[in-house]
Amino acid sequence: MIFSRTAYLFLSLLIWVAVASAVLLVDDWRTLRRTIHPGGIRELLGASLADEGLLQDVELFQDAFEYAAAFHRSMTERDLREHTVEQVLSLTMYTLGDPVPPTDPALRRAAQRALERNAEQVSWYDDAPPFLEEIHRQKIPTALVTNTIFGLGRVWEEELARWFPVRILSREFGFVKPHPGIFLEAARALHVDPKECTFVGDLPLADVWGAQRVGMRGVLIDRGDEGQGAFRAGDARLAAHLGVELAAIRPDVTVSSLADVLAVLA
């Protein structure tokens, strides 16, 4: 009886330590949030550039922006360096025959205005708010780690700051996932060892493998939405460059809802 009680207390202590030391890093897009109208931001960027007097033909902007974005993505696949939306817009304007340097304040204003206008087209996944409430209740250290050429925008910056004291954006850090530095920067900011961290995201290469290569656990979320849990165009080239086979990438755990993540931490 004494042994059983001692064993029970010891096991309880182990569970308490495991939960107390759990650290959670979370991806943003298609993990926490989704865009209701995916093409909306491009339309808003064109309108915002027109508001700044930089763009005469909004219709031509769409194709030029897609070209510029594809070019920058191809460059990122080579060295994992991130580019900003201002750089993409600068190349877009160059393509249209009206060069504007990426440092021009008008490009920044246009991007910010487009983000603010697009805020209402962005929503949480249904399982995100209760998930965030629970990790906040349990006082689990958290960080947001996301690939984005944009900022978060004022509205969503305030909302995300409620849940994530640490927010690592690729446009600010300079490199995209799966670069090891962006994961290590999050761990450093939380003052923890990478091995204490669990990363949750929807991309096998960028999120899962990227986290695993620095010693973190990689949890793949796949709700069945288009693109979730799947490799993206360009991943094969990137994987070859990084020396990893896509077939060898295996998440530590796959979940279909954020509600299942807390069980993984325990």
Written overview of the protein:
The structure is a single chain. The protein has 266 residues and is α/β, with parallel strands linked by helices. It has twelve helices and eight strands. It has two domains: 2-32 and 125-265, Rossmann fold, CATH 3.40.50; 40-120. The chain has helices spanning 2-20, 40-51, 58-79, 85-95, 105-118, 128-137, 154-163, 170-173, 180-190, 204-212, 235-242, 261-265, and strands spanning 23-26, 33-35, 122-124, 142-146, 166-169, 197-201, 217-221, 253-255. The strands form two sheets. It has a six-stranded parallel sheet with strand order 5-4-1-6-7-8, sandwiched between helices. A two-stranded antiparallel ribbon has the order 2-3. The longest helix is centred in the N-terminal third of the chain and has 22 residues, at 58-79. It is globular. The two termini are 27 Å apart.
Uncertain stretches = 6-21
What is the CA-CA span between the terminal residues?
27 Å
* Number of distinct beta strands: 8
Trace the largest sheet across and list its strands. 5-4-1-6-7-8
Silhouette: globular
Main beta sheet: strand number and arrangement?
6 strands, parallel
What percentage of residues falls in helices of 4 or more residues? 40-55%
Structural class: alpha/beta
**DSSP helix count?**
12
For the record, the CATH class of the largest domain is Alpha Beta
CATH superfamily of the largest domain: HAD superfamily/HAD-like
CATH topology name of the largest domain, in short, is: Rossmann fold
Radius of gyration: 21 Å
Strand content: 5-15%
User: How confident overall, as mean pLDDT?
Assistant: 91
Order of helices and strands: HEEHHHHEHEHEHHEHEHEH
CATH architecture of the largest domain: 3-Layer(aba) Sandwich
Give the domain tally: 2
